[in-house]
Write a structure and sequence with these properties.
single chain, about 100 residues, mainly alpha, 3 helices
């Protein structure tokens, strides 16, 4: 995750939602954990504990996003972004036009 990607994410979230800098930092941290678990899941059988952690992280992301009217979309494919956010005005920055990609 490059500094440019982080700054672009924070800028887009500030422009298209009511997320604070603290919210964006938490989202990037949660997305990094989600990405790591998805990578492990593709490379090997993950334990029940890791699967439970993935579910907990997804719930934390959903709860955090609910505070500023954003809907998260999760993907299990670690080759791309595993967490994208659908903002109220519909702005996207990914090729699939699914939402704003959270850098991980």
């Amino acid at each position: 995750m490059s500094t440019r990607e982080k700054l672009e994410f924070v800028y887009l979230m500030a422009k298209h939602s009511k997320a604070s800098l603290s919210d964006c930092q938490r989202l990037m941290r949660f997305a990094a954990t989600h990405q790591r678990i998805c990578t492990d899941e593709c490379n090997r059988e993950i334990s029940n504990g890791e699967q439970a952690k993935k579910i907990r992280v997804q719930r934390k992301i959903v709860a955090l996003c609910a505070g500023f009217n954003v809907k998260p979309k999760f993907s299990g494919d670690p080759r791309g972004c595993t967490v994208k956010l659908q903002v109220p005005d519909g702005h996207t920055n990914d090729w699939g036009r699914e939402g704003i990609a959270v850098p991980a």
